[in-house]
Amino acid sequence: MFDYRVVMDLGKMTSELIELDFGEEADGRASFDALREVLTMTNVLHHHAAVLAGILNRSAVLRQRGGSLRQLLIDLGCAPATASRLVRVATALPDTQFLAGHTRDGYLSLEHADAVVTGLTHIERRAGTPLTRQSRVEFERVLVAQTFSGASPAEVAAHARSVGNSVAAETDSGLPAAADRRVDEFTVAVDRDGRTQVRGDLDAVIGEKLATLIDAFSVVRPEPDGSADTRSAGRRRADALERILDAAMAAHDIGALAGAPKTSVLLTIPADTPDLSALPWVGPVSRATTEQLTCDGTVTTMIVDGETVPLAMGRDRRLFPAHLRKAIIVRDGGTCIKCGAPASWTQVHHITHWCQGGETCVDNGCLVCTSCHSDVHHAGWDVVMGYDRHPWLIPPASVDPRRRPLPAHNRRTMRLDNAA
């Protein structure tokens, strides 16, 4: 039976640790030795935390709470990632031959123990059938030895994948990780700032398709003055993803993408407070984003009163119909007016924003790619229609303190003194 005096002893130890003060006068050698002991103690404590978590997982306490072990650990103060590792290690620890002894002695961190546990799970999944006790013990020994060789948790996981692929090749029921769609994952989550976090774990075929398209659509393009592309590689890949999504929506519009529901951006605009516009997935968006969304693309606009009762409902449409877009393409030379991207990459921007009463006509539209469109709405770039009935760009003061107008990309050799 569990002795509750142990809990009291743990409380005393915790109090003593809290009161510890190494001071600023400790020399380097003493600090090194103390740090080594503290890290070993951390590993030992993680071992005991995993053991206790396993006991809780098998007890009636968890069932009475009606929640998961991971959530209980989070409620007790664990970070979500640490809670997930403790659950995995706690579940697997009783069935291990070597791991429990090394974690109890403080030789292995929780991260390394988790890498071994998940590695064993990966190998068994690759085998297609449950491993024999002897095989599991051997694979465990190999992965634990990998940790003692100085390998990081990521390197242990990579070694487990290599072993798993070898196991799959030797069996009739096994499947290499790269070909196993059963473990594919793709999540899209919105954080508190309204930023969208995308995470995925894809098989080789889907991954190759994604990588091929991202690479094709994220090519470097020069700035309007001919200088090098200022976008980072990550920004170019994000812009490429938007172009891929726009292409998919356009393909569905013309019937080239069959079997999928109509994909539309639903923008809700409060009648009295348009600054509080919102999207169903991401949530509140700024006025600038509202203006960008209503420029071009498939949009359904819904205006609601203070009780969120719809007052007016727009219809799905491309605000610039095909014949006007073709005219604007001819006038703008078939390129984005800012960077020169081809017309197939562009949207039609309302120079006077549509939600501010701007008309859908040739003299109120210009071609901008998705990246430059964002710059116009969010980075201080302005577009005006000149007396020559061509669009002109006005850079932000951070680019040109005098904010001198620039001609569209197809006319950038022109100067103000020779403009019609």
From TrEMBL:
Gene Ontology molecular functions: endonuclease activity; nucleic acid binding; zinc ion binding
Gene3D superfamilies xref list: 1.10.30.50
Amino acid composition bias (Basic residues), ranges on this chain: 404-413
UniProt-listed InterPro entries: DUF222, HNH, HNH_nuc
Domain HNH nuclease, residue spans: 323-374
Family matches, as Pfam families: DUF222 (PF02720), HNH (PF01844)
Top-level taxon: Bacteria
Record region (Disordered): 401-420
Family: Belongs to the Rv1128c/1148c/1588c/1702c/1945/3466 family.
Protein name (record): HNH nuclease domain-containing protein
Organism annotation: Gordonia amarae NBRC 15530
